[in-house]
Amino acid sequence: MEPAVKYTLLKKEKHTGARLGLLETPHGTFETPMFMPVGTEASVKNMAPEDLDKIGASIILANTYHLWLRPGEDIVQEAGGLHKFMNWDKGILTDSGGFQVFSLANTRDITEAGVHFKNHLNGRREFLSPEKAIKIENYLGPDIMMSLDECPPFFESYDYIKKSVARTSRWAERGLEAHRNPDWQALFGIVQGAGFEDLRKQSAQDLVSMDFPGYSIGGLSVGESKDEMNRVLDFTTPMLPENKPRYLMGVGTADSLIDGVIRGIDMFDCVLPTRIARNGTCMTSHGRLVVKNAKYARDFSPLDDNCDCYVCRNYSRAYIRHLINANELFGTHLTSYHNLYFLLNLMKGVRQAIRDDNLLEFREHVFEDYGFNQE
Ligand SMILES: CNc1nc2c(CC[C@H]3O[C@@H](OC)[C@H](O)[C@@H]3OC)c3nc(N)[nH]c(=O)c3cc2[nH]1
Ligand SMILES: [Zn+2]
């Protein structure tokens, strides 16, 4: 049986662990490394699908936890699945809800069977098992879906993480069993293990033995330092098969994206670009710009003089500042559009730097211009 997604490694960058690849999915073939805009509740906030298409988005994310609780996976299935529901005909990936249950839901109780928690919308008791998460994702119909895992606090004890990794591996196996549509929905396993190399190895070995079509590296971007994240990636990514895609969950600043690519990551997601856009903070080639600040009241230059996006070609900082301060929704559309374009365009530059074998020079240029502190 043909797997739902197929990864082809096109080229390795000469001086780093970075790789250029192609990810074939039932909704198109896309270049990696890629950044994936997040549309948690079946919409990338303040962005229309045609805008996402224009800025080069290939795969976007939706979230199983949220869509299960509202509007319900049955409604999405009756609509013909997420692609129809959202009017998005390229790639869609859903997370399993593992993260949200541990971050959003109140009072939760983890058992071997699954997680009991209180619904953050109505306070009702809910239960999410590995099988239930897979069933919901089968109903939602994304091209790529995640197993139910526990994303533990990074600084938990060794013993806790050891037990958690073992249970996440058992849950992954149960998820594989429950998966109904492996020929058109690719189920990824999620590697856990916090900052412990031996536990990351155990988790990776468990999941690789189950032969998933792709692997996520979870348990990161949860408050640990960038150095800590890079240290974990240094030893974890090489544990994963070269001919399968690697997805680092929850990472989305320019420096972390490049550092993840250098360590062999192919796919990234993060809510940051659209989240900070809503309070008027923009990602630019000179670092962050809080456009609602008074100093931009009469600044008629674009958000970013190095950006050629629709927003930077047509609107000024003064205008966008005014809209944000007046709570005009069009203002957050413009900041969201630019921030997503900024990251997608950055990844285009990263892919070219891999082709040209000068990713480290590219990183220097980004870090200098963007004002990121060096190590
Ligand atoms: C931000 N840092 C971070 N996010 C993480 C997510 C949620 C992304 C999901 O949560 C929402 O973004 C917060 C998005 O909806 C996204 O998926 C669609 C994770 N999900 C799972 N299942 N396991 C993990 O170990 C994990 C680690 C993360 N680290
Ligand atoms: Zn722009």
Short synopsis of the structure:
Helices cover 41% and strands 19% of the residues.
Task: Explain this structure.
There is one protein chain. The chain has 375 residues and is of the alpha/beta class. The protein has 15 helices and 16 strands. Helix 6 crosses helix 7 and helix 7 (158-178) packs parallel to helix 8 (197-209). The longest helix has 27 residues, at 329-355. It starts with 5 loop residues before the first strand and ends in a 5-residue tail after the last helix. The mean pLDDT is 95. The structure holds the ligand CNc1nc2c(CC[C@H]3O[C@@H](OC)[C@H](O)[C@@H]3OC)c3nc(N)[nH]c(=O)c3cc2[nH]1 and zinc ion.
Short descriptors:
eight-stranded parallel beta sheet; 19% strand; binds zinc ion
What is the topology?
Elements: E1 6-12, E2 19-25, E3 28-32, E4 34-37, H1 49-54, E5 59-63, H2 64-69, H3 73-78, H4 82-86, E6 91-95, H5 98-103, E7 106-110, E8 115-118, E9 125-128, H6 130-140, E10 144-146, H7 158-178, E11 186-191, H8 197-209, E12 215-217, H9 226-236, E13 246-248, H10 254-262, E14 267-270, H11 272-277, E15 281-284, E16 287-290, H12 310-314, H13 317-325, H14 329-355, H15 359-370
Parallel strand pairs: 4-14, 5-6, 6-10, 10-11, 11-12, 12-13, 13-14
Antiparallel strand pairs: 1-2, 2-3, 7-8, 8-9, 15-16
The structure holds the ligand CNc1nc2c(CC[C@H]3O[C@@H](OC)[C@H](O)[C@@H]3OC)c3nc(N)[nH]c(=O)c3cc2[nH]1 and zinc ion.
Overall SS class: alpha/beta
- Quick one: overall form? globular
Distance between the termini: 47 Å
Largest β-sheet summary: 8 strands, parallel
How much helical structure, as a percent, in the residues? 40-55%
- Beta-strand portion reads 15-25%
Ligand catalogue: the ligand CNc1nc2c(CC[C@H]3O[C@@H](OC)[C@H](O)[C@@H]3OC)c3nc(N)[nH]c(=O)c3cc2[nH]1, zinc ion
Oligomer: single chain
